[in-house]
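Deliverable D5.2: sample structural annotation.
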Amino acid sequence: MRVLYFGTYERDYPRNAQVISALRGAGVEVVEHHVSVWEGRRDNWQAGATTAARLAIAELRLFRRPREEFDALVVGYPGHLDLTAARRVAAGRPVVFNPLVSLYDTFVADRGRFTRTSAAGRALRSIDRRALRAADLVVADTAADADFLAGLAGIPTSRVEVCLVGAEERVFSPGWAPADPFEALFIGKLIPLHGVETVLEAARLAPGLRFKVVGSGQLEPLLHNRPPNVEHVPWVDYEGLPGELHRAGCALGIFGSSEKALRVIPNKVFQALACGTPVVTADTPAAGELLADRESALLVPPGDPEALAAAVTRLAEDASLARRIADAGLAAYRARASERALGERWRGLIESLVR
């Protein structure tokens, strides 16, 4: 079976790289029809007039039919504007959309950049709905997100399947060997979803522990008055993240309390699990699809710095507990979110459409 991975998707973004790698590992031939728009930008959502012009030109280029033959077409992330071209290029063959996020949910409900009734908010909702409805199959990252996307688009839940995000295993592999002293590691964009304010307050409540925040973004001003036990590193290259995770005492997931935060398991949680690093993250419906509290992770209420501080302290003071959480987290990852497991899942979903 041959799959065409299609669109203006960000080629190096973990969701795209991992899906392509997983499909190839499952014996699927993957060819790409990619027009670059988003590469080389740390914050791809800061799109001005130049990016808008590049995107318009890219959409026109996507209408050119590729020379390669294929059995099904997958639109990568972000590809919400690519579906019109995708349907034309597919010429009746199945079209799968790998959206990862809703644009409306990201900019309106989560980041609060636009109001629900603003022109921009209404436009984003319309873009989402058109893109989701144009696909023969939408693949969401969690069951909670699948229900949300089906409701947003007004399509049957049978047209939205689930395939976890996973981690790119050429980069992330087991090797956890925590450094001394213990350090809790937070990696990610500083946006409301991740709950960095909860992390900073937890650090204030546990002044004897070290915390490291790697990332930049919308909420970076919160780091200006960070407590003295918090180190801030604005950027670490992607290839350097496994080393950070291997040395960390534990990895911190997301702690936001928005509706979106309840529906997602972020890349960094899968990456930490793949590295065998113990994870502390919010106890949400999405997290519960993969992880069990005090077994494969420590789960705490969203937005609760006291609970987060207590969980990190437990791991810092109990090395045997940290090792048990680490081992069980890696086992959960291998069973449900490894490239092998996800490759089989993606192949099965596409084969069912082709048949």
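Annotation notes: The longest helix spans residues 319-336. The CA atoms of residues 207 and 228 lie 8 Å apart.
The annotation will be released with the project's public dataset once the embargo ends.
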